[in-house]
Amino acid sequence: xxxxxxxxxxxxxxxxxxxxxxxxxxxxxxxxxxxxxxxxxxxxxxxxxxxxxxxxxxxxxxxxxxxxxxxxxxxxxxxxxxxxxxxxxxxxxxxxxxxxxxxxxxxxxxxxxxxxxxxxxxxxxxxxxxxxxxxxxxxxxxxxxxxxxxxxxxxxxxxxxxxxxxxxxxxxxxxxxxxxxxxxxxxxxxxxxxxxxxxxxxxxxxxxxxxxxxxxxxxxxxxxxxxxxxxxxxxxxxxxxxxxxxxxxxxxxxxxxxxxxxxxxxxxxxxxxxxxxxxxxxxxxxxxxxxxxxxxxxxxxxxxxxxxxxxxxxxxxxxxxxxxxxxxxxxxxxxxxxxxxxx
Length: 343
Hints:
Elements: E1 2-8, E2 11-16, E3 27-37, H1 39-45, E4 61-69, E5 81-84, E6 87-88, H2 94-97, E7 108-109, E8 121-125, E9 129-131, H3 138-141, H4 144-155, E10 164-168, H5 172-183, E11 188-193, H6 196-204, E12 209-212, H7 218-226, E13 233-236, H8 241-250, E14 256-259, H9 271-276, E15 280-283, H10 289-300, E16 310-315, H11 319-328, E17 335-339
Parallel strand pairs: 10-11, 10-13, 11-12, 13-14, 14-15, 16-17
Antiparallel strand pairs: 1-2, 3-4, 3-8, 3-17, 4-5, 5-9, 6-7
Helix pairs in contact: 4-5, 4-10, 7-8
C-alpha cells in the first residue's frame, strides 16, 4: 500500500509499504477515503511544530471505511463509514477518568506524535471511532475533526447560551467556531479578520456581524456591534500575542476569553486587568467525545455551511503539490482534501 511520509521539513516521500495487520482484538483496519490538511500540518511540514515527530506520516483529519475488524469488536462492522478521533490517550490519568481525554497527561495525536492517516490503510483501536450515517458524504465526513474543534471551542465557555460571542479569525477553525456558536445557542456572533473574502463567506454562513480589524480595533468592532453589553465571550482562533493583548483590551468585566489558536510565542499578560475585572481566561484543546458527536450531527443535518470550506481536492499521487499550492495561495485556502480511496 502507499503512504506519504514526511522525511524532513519540506520533503514528503510517497512510498510503498506492507499493508498493516489487525493484531489485537479491539483493533480495526481502516481504508482511508479522504484526509484533510490543516494549519498544524503546515507547521509540521515546515519543521515548526514543537512536539511533532519526524519522520512521520501526517494526517489527523480523516474519512474512513472499515475494512476488517478484530475478534473483540462488536459495535462496528466491515463496510461502515466512520469518523476517527485522533487523540491517543492513556485512560488512566485524572483528566481521562473524568472524560477530558483531550488533555490527557500522556496525550499523543495521530499524525503529529505518531504515524497518522496519510496512508491508504491504517490500523487503530475501536475506541477512537465514531459511528456516522451510512449515506454521509465522505468529503463532509473528512470535515468532522476540524468542525469538532469549533464545537469544543464554542462550548468551552459557560456564557455561550444567550450571549454575545466574538470570534477572532475567519479561517476554517474560526468559521467553524462561529457557526458552532450560532448552532449551540449564542444570541449574536461577530467574526473579525483581515481578509474581506473570508468575512463575506462568514456572512453567507449566517454569522450576524463581521468586521475587518485592519480598519478598526477589536474593541471598536465589539462596541459597534454589541453595544454596552459588549462581548460575553471572545474566542481567539488565530494564536498570536498581539491578538491576546487586543482581546484583553476589548474585554468587559466578567468576560470569558477562550484561547483556541495555536500559540508559538509567549504572551505578556496585564494581570491587574484580569484580576480587577474578573476576566476568565480559558485554554481550549481540541475536543471531547461529545463534541465529536455534536459535530457529526450538525454536519449531517446540513446545519453547517460548508459550500466554500473545501478549497481544493488533490489525488493522493499529487499530495505534495497541495503544500506548494497553500504556500503560494494562502488567502485562497480554507481546507484542502486529499482523495485516497474514494474512487
